[in-house]
Amino acid sequence: MSDAHNEEHGALVKTPKQLVTVVVLAFIVPIFIIVLLVSYVGTGTKTGAGTDTNNPQLIEARIAPVAKLEIKDLANKVAASGDKVYKAQCAACHDSGAAGAPKFGDAAAWAPRIKTGFEALWQSALKGKGAMGAQAGGEYDDQEIGNAVVHLANSAGAKFAELKSASKPDPAAKADAAPKAEAAKVDAQAKPEAQVKAAEDAKK
To answer: How many Å from the N-terminal Cα to the C-terminal Cα in the chain?
Structure first.
């Protein structure tokens, strides 16, 4: 009975041939499983970001320049109102008072700022102050930013006048002015000659 009992609890590998087979399988089977897993994961269709490398729109986005140049037609531009510029540029902070910005219509918060005058407020808006970034050089020109400053300050009791846009020279008026300027020039040249002649006549 002890021999039978020992055989039940004995080693599974009884011969050198079985030992070699077990060692070889212990290396080959895990490697085979790993290769199958890698091929399964590697051949699946990927749907994550940046996986469709041949998509024309993604290629265009990758090779797009960092900056773009936009040329605006400033000759025919109609100036935006102070209210419109305020809503587009300023309202995000000044309506809620974000980052310490004085609120729209808050006379107490605006009083010391209004005392500095329009020019100081306008320069603060153009160049930036505190948490407010510079507004100059953006979508709106300096005059439009100035009108937004007027709108904002006047809501708190200031009496600033809106900036008037610089009048553009009219080509027809310029054409009319050229002959008049030429005539004035000829007239100016003739006057000294007449004065010299009159002085000579007076001596005689």
So the answer is: 169
Contacts within 8 Å (CB) and 24+ apart, 161-169? 162/82, 165/79, 168/75
Q: Which helix (H) or strand (E) holds 119?
A: helix 118-127
Please tell me whether residue 54 adopts helix, strand or coil conformation.
coil
3-state SS, residue 20 = helix
The set of residues, in sequence order, having a beta carbon less than 8 Å from that of 95 and lying 6+ positions away, is 103, 104
- 28-55 confidence digits (pLDDT tens): 999 999 999 988 887 766 666 656 677 7
Residue 98 contacts by C-beta under 8 Å, 6 or more apart in sequence?
92
Tens-digit pLDDT profile for residues 159-190: 788 877 654 444 444 455 555 555 555 454 54
SS3 state at 126: helix
142 near 126, Cβ under 8 Å? Answer: yes
Q: What pTM does this model have?
A: 0.47
Across 13-154, the runs of DSSP E, i.e. the strands, are none
Tell which residue, 144, 7, 16, has the closest CA to residue 88: 144
